[in-house]
Structures are given as structure tokens and as C-alpha cells.
Design goal:
This protein is α+β, with helices and mostly antiparallel strands. It contains 32 helices and 22 strands.
Length: about 850
């Protein structure tokens, strides 16, 4: 019998608060929120900051107390910026975790409520139905055909039917456990343990210590940093040895060596990866896309194949009953309304095979037609008693209800038309006629269900319908589920972006073909059915799947087979799913996408991304965001390389030439105060390029920076070094003292840094969306702060003297700004000579 929830009162809000204080939150020991000390400890362990602290110590040792103080102040300021960036990233991640926390239904104060699972308390009355992950240990107070899978705890998969506690003695059949999965039916459960007090909590505390694997991009950048580190250490030792050999001054050689070592380390790269991914994922939530796993942001932009279901993703999931076949005749709904008497028996059975309180769109449509022909669903149900409810079986492809009325018992089933007809006792000619009619209705784009019934004479009802046969055929029901208005646009945009869209559905092949054609999915090779797929070996499927686009009558195990074959071909696969049995496919795909509205909790937990509006277009737009994020990471890393190339050359070659040192460790700190916010904030906010969704997907195994781009990076870095050195040397030769010459050279470096970002806005040319970019608040804030800071360093005597600078004429200051335009122009020329290669879709 369906559960009557109105007879349960549940906890009051006051009791909820009391129990929460007494028993705690429903969560395992979570990773504690980082404190300031944790952040600082992580930051000061960075090699660059350790080198800067050593340099500050050297200044104190040689008596340059003020320089030492400035170094320490600079280090503290860098730590402050890093703290801000780390905290901003963590807040974004925490917000995502909060949004992705599973929700559960509870009865409180006599009302059914939806709460976050971590708010569940001991003695709560939790309502669980098919597809829910059980959120706490408890005892069943009411159930309807309720079964669970406890393999997470026991290792043994399969359905275990649970029953309501009837006496004082509680058996294992009356208990459910946190972390297990509801396979069928529904139940009301009184919670007895939450969090680490549950059986799952006692064996699962170690899960909190598991860290995510590094992504291909993180692995690549780690190698790059190691290479820089090895080269820097070698060059540092050589420079110290050469300087010491020439002047026998150990402190001078150490300072120059440290300056070089500090200039080599590209410590901004890990910051860029972390912040771009976290902020990108947080931005996606505003676009109805909830990212559960931050690393998925990187993979999003590489998707080559998008596998989608039909119902609710490509279609509206409105399921309006359009045609009805019974007694050898096809009736449209308009005609059916005029032949009410003839339809009463068939529609009565259709009602008995549906939920009395419908929530499924097809059941709702059946109820609506019944009312239109004069049937009162409430009266139909009240005349009978529901003895047993059989939930939808994924293998049988139908569900059923066993009813009693007086001495009679009727078993009525509804589901996949072919599967139901196969269970009916009809002649071969009649069976052939029914299958032809099913094909005809499906060919019109209708989703076809069959209804069948039988008088049930056995004394005991079976636990499953798998062995029940010889039903009487009742009717075929054809439901119209129109394509979503934006589905065709979504498929078209995906194809323009080089992404192949494949439909995988459990529906009839003709229905699948009709919808595929309507939304623009390739149908040239026809439909591959589940039966055909079962006859293809894994090896053959890997070879042939490239030309397969529409799959019908597919079961969950076959979805996994399809995903695996695509991955073996080297495809980066996104899989969209909503059901309990979609979980393995969602986990196996490179990107698992669950439906937020109609998806089960298990599907959502298995997915990397949750769609809050269940639209295919949202996924495609998220791919564009993923590509933008990766594009901006490439641009930021290119900028970092350029900066480090000219700083390394300046720190290495000027000391070797015998000239007064241009950049000391203090000046490296000042440059880092420009580079860090520029990389972390300015580049992250660069808008997507116009052609970003007209490119072929990027191979994630390719290097983050191509040889062509690397050549441009080194050329621009060398160009900046040449300009800076030429200006510095010329200033010294024309009678300027070291402080003035350093001021001129440093000003050139700062202006070059600022203007380099403008040429990095686009891979092609900076004028495409430059004006949109420079209106960005982050860009304006960072640039204004840097320019004001430079003016203060140059023209405020109390400050410039302390940093080894000196006031220079205004015309010369503006001249350094003009010189900064040369690398910008050079970068634009190199884009034409050495264009950034992105494969466009023809």
C-alpha cells in the first residue's frame, strides 16, 4: 500500500535543535576549515619566500638594516596577497561544497520538508524512495515494496527487501544503514544514528584523508616548475662562483646568486591553476551548472563526445497522451473523448497500473484522460485494496500493482511495449500485429507503453514479476514528448565546437530516430539497438562506434559498454544521466553530468557536474566556459614565462657584465607584487575569444605551451631584456647615477608588464575584445594600483631613496611608458608570424 505520510508528526524544530546539540551534525569528521596559521605555514614553505627571507637575513648581517626591514615588509605584503588569494579560492570551493550537499526528505511538525543531509538528526523521520542514498542509520516505521543495496557495507550487491518493524523486537530486516542505496519502493525511517556514529561512519572516517589525483595540467606544470628549479639552482651556483672569483666578496656573491634564484622560480603557476579552476567553477553555478569536483573544470573544455539521454534532456518530459490502441483500433485523444464507453475498461486498467497520487508525467497524463472520459480515479482506487506494489524493474522494463476487490485479485502491469506484449498470451499473428503497431506509433515520435492484466489466483503474491506470464493484453498508449525548444540549438552549437552528440535511450528505436532527426543528431547510420549491441564484442565496438550516433533500447550495463568503447578510441566523454543505474556510467565517463531536477541522489553523487535546469544547452555552454578558463590559463602561463625570461637574463647577465646591479631582491619583491595579482585576477577575468566554440576540442595530452608559443615567449622576453638593458646602460653613460638609471630601467619593466597583458588578451590580435576587457573592474583596479605605486616609488623622495630609486624627469618617465609599447607591438607582430594554432571546424 502507498504510505500515508499524514499519520506521522515527526520532530518539532525545538527538538531538532536539541538533538543536533546532543548528537552532532550528520557528517563524517570533515576537513577543518583552514586557519590563518595553516595558510601562513603553507605560504612560507614556498621556495621563493624562503629565499627572500635568507636575503633579508643577509642584509641584516652586513649592516643594511633598512634594506632588511624592507625585505621583511615586502615578504609580509606578499604573504598578505597570497592569503587573500588562498582565502578567496577556499571560499569559492566551500560555497560549491555547500551547494552540492545532498538533500533528504524528513517529516517535521507534521509536514514533509527538504533539508540538507548534514542537518539530519537522531529521531528524525526520514522519507526515502527509489534512487535515494540513505543518510543515516535507522528503523523502518512504514514501507511500500522497499528494497536496498547494502554492497557499500557488505561487498555483496543485490536487492535486500526491508519491512516495517511490527513488534518490540527489531531485526536486520527492519534496519537500514547510512550510505546504502534505496533500489525500489519507499519507506519512512526513524533515525537512530548520524555522522561518525553510523556503521558507515565507523568504517569510513579514513575517506576524509583521501586526496584527488592531479590532473594532466597539474602534472605538466609541476614538471615545468621542476625544470625551472633545476636550471635556476645550477645558474645560481655558477653565478655565485663567478662573482666570488672576481671580487672575493662572499656576501655580494650570495646576494647576486639569491637574486637570480628568486627570479627563476615561477611560483605563480600553481596559484593560477588553483584560482582559475575554483573561481571558474563558482562562476558556473550562476549559469545553472554546479561543479562537484573542481578538476572537472579543466576537462570540460576537452570534451569530444557528449552522450545524452532523450527524455527530459532533448525533450520536454511533458508526456501528453496522444494515441491509444485497444480492441484493434488506433484512437487519437480527440476521437477517444467521443467513445468513452468503449475506453472505460482499458483506461481503468491503465489507472490501476499507475500511481494513485501521480508524479510521473505519463501517469499524470493517464489520470487526465480518465477524467475526460468520465472516470473518477479516486473512485476507481477506493473500490479496491492495493496488496502489493512492484516498482519499475530495469531488467523487465515494466512495473505493476496487485489489487483486490472482494474475492478477486487483479495484477496490472505497464511498461516497455515490446516487453509487456512478450508477457501476454496472444497468437503469433496478433503479436506480430501489435509489434507492427508499436513501430508505427514510435515512428511518429511517440513513446509507446503497453498495459496488460491478469486474474491472480495464487495465494501468495510473488516478490518479483520476473516469472509471472500469460497476461491479457489491454492497450498501447502513445505519449507525445516534444523536443525542447533549445535542443536543436544545443546540438548545433556542440557540433560547431567539434563535439559529437550521441543519444543513448531505453526508448523504442523509431521514437529515438524521430527525436534525433528533430534535434539534428546524425542519423545516417541508423539506430543501434540493445540487442544488436549485445552481439558486438568490445574490440569490434571500439572499431565501429565512431559511426554510431543513436542507441535505443539500451540498458544501464550497455551504457557503460558504450562509454568504455568511446574512451578506448581516445574520446573525452561527457555522459548525462539521472537514474540509479546510470551511476557506473557517470563515474566511468571523463565528465559525469547528473540532472539536478529529476536526477536521483545516487546519480548526483556519482557525477562531476550537476545541471540545475536539466538542459543540454547548459552543458554545451559550460564547455565554452571550460575552454575559456583553459585558454586564460595558457595566456597567464605564457605571460609568466615572458616575465621570468627577462628577469632571469637581467639578474644573470648584468652582474656578469660588471655593471651595477639593476634588480636586487627588494626589486624582485616589488615585481612579484605586480605579477601575482595580474596573473591571479586580471587574466582570470579575460572574456572568451569569439571563435572559442568554433575550434576543435584540444587534446589534453598536448603540452600546455606549444613550441611555437614557447618561441614567441622567449623572443618577447629577450626583446624586453634588450630594451631594459639598453635604457639602463645608456642612462649610466649619459651621466645618471646608479639610482636614477635603475629607476629608468625599473619603470620600463613595470610599463612592459602592464602592456604585455593587453597583447595577451587574444591569441590572434588584441583588438577583438580589448575595449570590453579594459572596462573590467578587476583590470582597472589592478592597473590603477600599480601605476599609482610606480609614481610613488619614483616621485616621493622619502620612499624612492629607501628602495634605491631616484626622481627622474617627467618626460623620461612618460618615455619609459612609450618604450613599453615596443614589446606589445612586437608581440602582435609575432602573432602573425608565429600564429597560435587552434584547429577550427570547417
Amino acid at each position: 500500500m502507498p504510505i500515508d505520510f499524514t499519520r506521522f508528526e515527526g520532530l518539532s524544530e525545538g527538538k531538532v535543535i536539541s538533538n543536533q546539540k546532543k548528537y552532532g551534525l550528520n557528517q563524517l569528521d570533515e576537513k577543518k576549515r583552514k586557519g590563518v596559521f595553516t595558510y601562513v605555514k603553507k605560504i612560507v614553505e614556498e621556495p621563493m619566500l624562503l629565499l627572500l627571507l635568507i636575503a633579508a637575513g643577509l642584509y641584516f648581517v652586513i649592516g643594511n638594516t633598512w634594506d632588511g626591514v624592507l625585505m621583511l615588509a615586502g615578504v609580509l605584503l606578499m604573504i598578505g596577497i597570497d592569503l587573500y588569494q588562498e582565502n578567496k579560492t577556499d571560499r569559492a570551493v566551500e560555497a560549491l561544497m555547500e551547494l552540492s550537499t545532498p538533500q533528504v526528505k524528513v517529516i517535521r511538525d507534521g509536514k514533509l520538508k527538504l533539508i540538507q543531509s548534514n542537518q539530519l538528526v537522531v529521531e528524525d523521520l526520514m522519507v526515502v524512495q527509489e534512487g535515494d542514498r540513505i543518510a543515516g542509520d535507522g528503523t523502518i516505521l512504514a514501507d511500500s515494496n522497499f528494497s536496498v543495496d547494502e554492497s557499500l557495507l557488505t561487498g555483496e550487491s543485490g536487492a535486500l527487501f526491508k519491512t516495517t518493524q511490527t513488534g518490540e523486537k527489531i531485526t536486520d530486516k527492519n534496519k537500514v544503514y547510512s550510505g546504502t542505496l534505496a533500489l525500489s519502493g519507499q519507506a519512512v525511517i526513524k533515525i537512530s544514528a548520524v555522522g561518525i556514529s553510523t556503521q558507515y561512519g565507523k568504517i569510513g572516517e579514513s575517506l576524509a584523508t583521501i586526496e584527488d589525483d592531479r590532473t594532466p595540467l597539474q602534472k605538466q606544470t609541476k614538471k615545468i616548475i621542476k625544470i625551472f628549479g633545476a636550471v635556476g639552482a645550477t645558474a645560481c651556483v655558477l653565478l655565485m662562483a663567478i662573482v666570488y672569483a672576481s671580487n672575493k666578496d662572499i656576501v655580494d656573491s650570495l646576494l647576486k646568486g639569491l637574486t637570480l634564484a628568486i627570479s627563476v622560480i615561477p611560483e605563480e603557476i600553481p596559484v593560477v591553476l588553483t584560482i582559475f579552476a575554483a573561481l571558474g567553477a563558482y562562476r558556473l553555478t550562476r549559469k545553472k551548472t554546479l561543479v562537484r569536483k573542481i578538476n572537472a573544470v579543466e576537462t570540460l573544455g576537452h570534451i569530444t563526445t557528449l552522450c545524452t539521454d532523450k527524455t527530459g534532456t532533448l525533450t520536454e518530459n511533458r508526456m501528453a497522451l496522444q494515441e491509444l490502441y485497444t480492441d484493434g483500433k488506433v484512437l487519437t485523444i480527440e476521437v477517444a473523448k467521443t467513445k468513452k464507453e468503449k475506453l472505460l475498461p482499458a483506461m481503468t486498467d491503465a489507472l490501476l497500473a499507475s500511481q494513485p497520487n501521480p508524479y510521473d508525467p505519463m501517469d499524470i497524463s493517464i489520470h487526465e484522460l480518465a477524467k475526460k472520459i468520465g472516470l473518477n480515479p479516486t473512485k476507481v482506487y477506493n473500490k479496491r485494496n492495493l496488496i502489493h506494489e512492484y516498482g519499475f524493474d530495469q531488467k523487465l522494463k515494466f512495473m505493476g500493482h496487485l489489487w483486490s476487490s472482494g474475492e478477486e485479485r487483479d495484477l496490472v502491469i505497464k511498461g516497455s511495449a515490446e516487453q509487456v506484449v512478450a508477457r501476454c498470451s496472444v497468437s503469433e499473428s496478433k503479436r506480430k500485429q501489435l509489434l507492427e503497431e508499436i513501430d508505427t506509433m514510435a515512428g511518429k515520435g511517440l513513446r509507446v507503453l503497453a498495459v496488460a492484466s491478469k486474474k491472480f489466483t495464487e495465494k501468495r503474491e510473488p516478490n518479483t514479476l520476473s516469472r509471472v506470464k500469460n497476461f491479457n493484453f489491454v492497450a498501447l498508449l502513445g505519449f507525445r514528448d516534444p523536443p525542447r525548444a533549445d535542443a536543436k540549438k544545443a546540438v548545433s552549437l556542440a557540433q560547431q565546437a567539434g563535439i559529437t552528440v550521441r543519444m543513448i535511450t531505453g526508448d523504442h528505436p523509431q521514437t529515438a530516430m524521430h527525436i534525433a532527426k528533430a534535434v539534428g543528431i546524425c542519423c545516417s547510420k541508423g539506430v543501434v539497438t540493445g540487442k544488436e549491441l549485445s552481439r558486438i564484442s568490445e574490440t569490434d565496438l571500439t572499431d565501429k562506434i565512431h559511426d554510431m550516433y543513436v542507441f535505443a533500447r539500451i540498458n544501464p550495463e550497455q551504457k557503460l559498454k558504450i562509454i568504455s568503447a568511446l574512451k578506448r578510441r581516445g574520446e573525452v566523454v561527457a555522459m548525462m544521466g539521472d537514474g540509479v543505474n546510470d551511476a557506473p556510467s557517470l563515474k566511468n565517463a571523463d565528465i559525469g553530468v547528473a540532472m539536478g531536477k529529476r536526477g536521483t541522489n545516487v546519480a548526483r553523487e556519482s557525477a562531476d557536474i550537476i545541471l540545475l535546469d536539466d538542459r543540454l544547452l547548459t552543458v554545451v555552454q559550460a564547455v565554452g566556459d571550460g575552454r575559456r578558463i583553459f585558454d586564460n590559463i595558457q595566456k597567464a602561463i605564457g605571460y609568466i614565462f615572458i616575465v621570468h625570461v627577462y628577469i632571469i637574463l637581467t639578474a644573470l647577465l648584468i652582474p656578469l657584465s660588471g655593471l651595477p646591479i639593476l634588480l636586487t631582491p627588494i626589486h624582485i619583491i616589488l615585481l612579484e607584487l605586480v605579477i601575482d595579482p595580474t596573473c591571479a585576477l586580471v587574466f582570470e577575468s579575460i572574456p572568451a575569444e569569439a571563435d572559442i566554440m568554433k575550434r576543435k576540442p584540444r587534446n589534453p595530452k598536448k603540452a600546455i605551451i606549444s613550441l611555437r608559443r614557447l618561441a614567441s615567449v622567449f623572443a618577447i622576453g629577450i626583446m624586453i631584456f634588450i630594451i631594459t638593458t639598453a635604457v639602463y646602460v645608456s642612462s649610466l653613460r649619459y651621466g645618471m647615477d646608479t639610482e636614477q638609471a635603475r629607476t629608468v630601467g625599473f619603470s620600463v619593466i613595470i610599463w612592459t608588464n602592464l602592456l604585455l597583458v593587453l597583447t595577451s588578451v587574444s591569441h590572434k590580435h588584441m583588438f577583438g575584445h580589448l575595449f570590453d576587457f579594459i572596462k573590467n573592474k578587476t583590470f582597472l583596479s589592478v592597473y590603477l594600483a600599480v601605476i599609482v605605486g610606480l609614481i610613488v616609488l619614483v616621485y616621493v623622495p622619502v620612499i624612492n631613496n629607501r628602495f634605491g630609486f631616484h626622481t627622474i624627469p617627467l618626460w623620461l618617465f612618460f618615455g619609459t611608458a612609450l618604450l613599453g609599447l615596443i614589446p606589445l607591438a612586437f608581440g602582435e607582430i609575432l602573432k602573425q608570424l608565429l600564429p597560435h594554432k587552434t584547429k577550427s571546424i570547417n
